[in-house]
């Protein structure tokens, strides 16, 4: 295509686009103009949609020109392609590689900081190493964009034909675009709305969101077409001829320009007498007409065009020549003819003039020939050094033929896809490998790899594939144990804890004595022990107690069993000293053993999690905090930004909640919930975060906010089958009680108590149902209330931590006789003063002060209330602060010291 023809195409596409261009100008003004006005840059999202040929590409090209030439912006550009939809992060690489290519490796490392190894493989600047968490990769790309957007030159990101972008790029774009108000950059996207069904769900949600109104492109009016025709045929074209051009093309700018160009080539007179010839001429620019025109150029040219269509975008002439079976000279001649025919454009790399042309030519290739060419393309791409992942999009199109070499290529490609954070692409390769099919002795291994590829993203899919792998005879013993463990993890991530426990028990019985069997037995105890409705809880506790009684912790299997024993003892409310001793044997010099770290794949993050949780509930908060901060660091370094990082934030939130740093706890928990929500609704991670945040809001005295949050996040029966922190049913009862709904609270707490007592779970910090129930029934049945409270105090005494004993005494005092209440509260203050849990200490101080005030012991009351107020303020316990101030004010009114000394 000549320069003049390209200008004519662009000019035609921009006819009647004043409003569309104005939208781009205004967006660029908000981005760039604010700097000179002393205000921050205002980024945004601009969407253009329309059918093929309506000028979306021309609009983006003009926006690019305005941004670069008029506004001096940095512009990143990419285009989706039908032929590269299966190539993960293809559009992301188009966007960022031009900006990264001029930089040295050190400069790239500095730019990406800790995300270099995580996002680098997806960006194509770091060789793939090992599996990456998709969310971590997306976060790394976010970081890169934020760094580029912070430079002096405003940043504009343009993506054309987004409906054909690869799913990984679209998913990143969909999530990132929701944060554009936080980032000083403009993103402009064009797409065909009728082809969005194949796009990533996150991107579909983005473009149909109420706040994102796309600019919809319309066909040209007859007046605009009339002007185009008269510009091409000055002082010659008559009105009937112009009207027929519009009728044939429907006002489609691309087809209009093509039809006018063909009319000039044929030497048609732009008069009414030529109008009947336009319809046949127009058909030659699309569909079968285009194919017929191509065939008239000769067999060699047609074959070269087929090769280009198979390769898709960024077509290297040497690869196209190889695929077409011709030498460089003949290939160059064919390329020239295709350029002249307005089918291809470009020199170093070729591309089709319009996606409609590429689609029509690709569809015209005979199926058998197309399949063979894809096979040859895969070989050519591999030989060119582009790797198995790049070749895989062609291998996916090859017909199954029992080719073991192809199976191996697809398995290698799947590993490369996982290494760039593209598990869906890996899954497609392995599913295609199964269709080949693989040799019978390799089928189980392929199914195992397929199951592992979907472990973090599609637990149900993982379950199906790993179950199939385990049903086959050719898995090695090592792979069978690992497949079973991963299958149990998938069940657990899918909230199927009973199935998780059952499958490891079944496979453990078939496994000979040794490390593999011990690993499966440990998994069985793990998945059983975190079930809320565990059927044989008491028997399991006895078995694990007998098994671990004399284990010294010589290897990671023994350490795992010891950790499970300690966690079970904590939930059951056993002596905390012994519980901590078990955890000490599960560690090596107070730290996680090698191979049991947060990112290990053999045991999973669940084992270190239960160690940290147990420390948090046994008053070893410093050890718990150290562990969970280590988790956050490990997950961030490894790019595990999904559920793992969300859990780590929740567990840190638990530590802050136990310590009484309620504002820090709330912030950490909200961040954990934000991270968890990116994975989708209804996952187990949401329950821990939600329960801890509701508990924290109640501690801060924000009952209405806790209730609103509970309603918004589905905190209602049926609760998750997994143990959460704190116990969900006990928390639900406490929330009802705080709202004054005693009858419902009593029913909820009684049900929780029956369930927990049947299973011997008596930890009064994790599940304080009895103490809350005592308060709920105190008015109507004070004797029952005292019985419940005293029993809880005994359980707390068995557990023995200062927090458990002190808090149980404080709560028991609420339902005790006045003289007993003072004694219990005084003891509670003594215990909680030694506790690291400052909120509970503040509660005890204020409660003791109020009781002393009621007893007329004004000086002692004021002293307790002053201290309680100070500690409550440190904890950011707003409700307790108000209570303490009110009580202290009452003490002042009754003559205790000057008001200024007593009340702040």
TrEMBL record:
Limits of the Orc1-like AAA ATPase domain: 26-188
Gene Ontology CC terms, in alphabetical order: cytoplasm
Gene3D superfamilies: Tetratricopeptide repeat domain
Molecular-function GO terms, alphabetical: adenylate cyclase activity; ATP binding
Superkingdom assignment: Bacteria
Pfam families from the UniProt entry: AAA_16 (PF13191)
Keywords from the named record: ATP-binding, Nucleotide-binding
Name the record gives this protein: Orc1-like AAA ATPase domain-containing protein
Species, as recorded: Streptosporangium nondiastaticum
